[in-house]
Amino acid sequence: MSDPREHDVEIAHPEALFVDGAWTAPAGTSSFEVVDATTGTPFLTVAEAGPADLDRAVAAARRAFDAGPWPLLEPAERAEHLRALAAGVRARADDLARLWTRQTGVVHAMAAALVPALAADYDVHADLAATFAFRTPVTSALSGVRACLVREPVGVVGAIVPWNAPLPLITSKLAPALLAGCTVVLKASPEAPGEAYVLAEIAESIGLPPGVLNVVAADREVSERLVRDPRVDKIAFTGSTAAGRRIAALAGERMARTTLELGGKSAALILDDADLATAAQTLAGAQCFLSGQICGAMTRLVVTRARHDEFVDALVAAAQVRLGDPFDPGTQMGPLATARQRERVETLVAAGVAEGADVVVGGRRPSHLDRGWFYEPTVLRSVDNGSTIARTEVFGPVQCVIAVRDEDEAIAVANDSEYGLNAAVFTDDPAKALAAARRIRSGTVGFNGVRGGRGLPFGGVKMSGIGREGGPEGLAGYLEPKTVVLDGAPFDAAAIGLPTTG
């Protein structure tokens, strides 16, 4: 079988930035080397955007919003551009999946299966043009005054995405922003900028108006300039809670809108009537996706003492997976994305052991893989919920089993965290699952699974963030409601573009 790395993805303009509808040279000469997570060797070099480059990108987005036709188009007109983006993503699906695997180590078969679903996100958002209430007639229950509630684009959006899942996280921001009528400055991660470059090529090919989408790869200093820039109306960010807190503070100084999808330390509750083998298999399988480098990963597994040992045995058996080259069809889990991330995982596992936890499987680098950033799926037992390993987001294939007395204590443990992004309840009784879910403080709670499908609202409470991405709730975050008072002379609702019912 030929080495898939012999067929590199062709990025048309890696030495340039996509600004105002054109590929332009950066002001400086710095660049980022992108490293293959499996081999540890560079395979792509892209231009690094500096402060002057960011200024040009923001200025282009501002002009496109203030003076361009984009925000004034009807949603149905913008929807046609989203459908063209969807077609472009499908046409470049192989490139996008290959980039995701090389940059982050995600198993290629999984990446290849997900890209078409991500293309469908643009189509689904395009469909919202016909169903979402962009303009709604309203009447005051107090005064009887009639008005129109108009939902208008928030303005220029700074979209900042991390390295672990660039395409899904770009899509969850770009699709609603564009449908809403916003213009966007997309700041890609230096570790994984490839998908953003491909999307810029697609935007150029479909004739997206100049300035509507601008793409730069930049470091944290430039990202902070984007957050501070008064010409940017909203920041949409996915990343660490520490970075999210900084963004929230800076945005708050000028009342910029934010959507912040941040870290998690998600709990899975395995109730006493659950099928332990199925729960263990589900949770171990989820741990393999992106080697646990996802914010919603189930990393605290809470089970009663009566079933603790049996569950740990089932989890250990399920954690026996094949590590290796993510392009190999037989591989079940690839490497971590960077050497720095593997070092973080090792440090936190060591801290867990020092604080009394026992490693029952994994906990080390696989001896047969001497290149890349591999780390074995790891399960720790005897974990105290107050310990470092139970309270810190590891962002790797590490799960902690926490023993509790009963269901009430399980829910208390689940809620005893500064995070509240994701959770799950494993039980044979849907009514019991719903009752438990209502007591868990989390943005999402799954029933015998790790989370719902794309298109559902996703986001966190507490330190896991602000706002939601996905579905109508996600679109609403890119719109500002405006009340236009129309009471007075008679008017024809249909003639001024209002629904005639509702």
UniProtKB/TrEMBL annotation:
Keywords: Oxidoreductase. Belongs to the aldehyde dehydrogenase family. One of its GO terms (molecular function) is oxidoreductase activity, acting on the aldehyde or oxo group of donors, NAD or NADP as acceptor. This is Acyl-CoA reductase. The active site is at E261. InterPro entries: Ald_DH/histidinol_DH, Ald_DH_C, Ald_DH_CS_GLU, Ald_DH_N, Aldehyde_DH_dom. The keyword Oxidoreductase applies. Residues 23-484 form the Aldehyde dehydrogenase domain. The keyword Metal-binding does not apply. It comes from the Bacteria.
